[in-house]
Write a structure and sequence with these properties.
2 strands; globular; two-stranded antiparallel sheet; 3% strand; Tlr1356 protein; single chain
Length: 151
């Protein structure tokens, strides 16, 4: 099983950047992890964050606590909390998130519709939401569309 997207290939072998699978889990368990914190983690700890389950409330509590313990140990203070919304934008299947719609206006020849959006995995939808955020570099939005068969 691959935990990474092809558009992340330049850094997944070294785990020098926080991969989408971990960013997804961070949002699910309400932790804001800075790149500085990530770099202070060992390779083994980073790998654990990639593969550890984060599907149930129990998994999320375990993931959150382990991460907070590691960051507090390495950095002296725990990571910040993120608000966990009732519904994440990638879980809404009846419409495209506004940031995704806005980013789609900047790319040619995409085939992303609400119907296709609903067929993507939650992690794929999460990636498109994150890659379309204002202030984000957005350079992987087009490669993600291609990888997901939408361009």
């Amino acid at each position: 099983m691959s935990y990474f997207f092809e558009f992340e290939a330049e850094f997944t072998a070294s785990l020098r950047c926080i991969p989408m699978i971990v960013r997804y889990k961070l949002d699910l368990c309400g932790v804001k992890l800075k790149l500085l914190h990530w770099h202070q983690l060992s390779q083994q700890q980073r790998q654990w964050l990639v593969v550890a389950p984060c599907n149930t409330p129990e998994d999320q509590a375990t993931y959150r606590q382990q991460l907070r313990d590691w960051v507090t140990h390495n950095h002296g203070t725990p990571p910040s909390d993120l608000e966990i919304p009732q519904t994440f934008p990638w879980d809404i299947l009846t419409e495209l998130p506004e940031t995704v719609q806005q980013q789609l206006t900047k790319v040619p020849h995409h085939s992303l519709t609400v119907e296709k959006w609903a067929t993507l995995t939650p992690l794929q939808r999460f990636a498109l939401v994150k890659l379309s955020q204002p202030g984000h570099e957005n350079r992987n939005f087009w490669p993600a569309l291609q990888e997901f068969g939408l361009a």
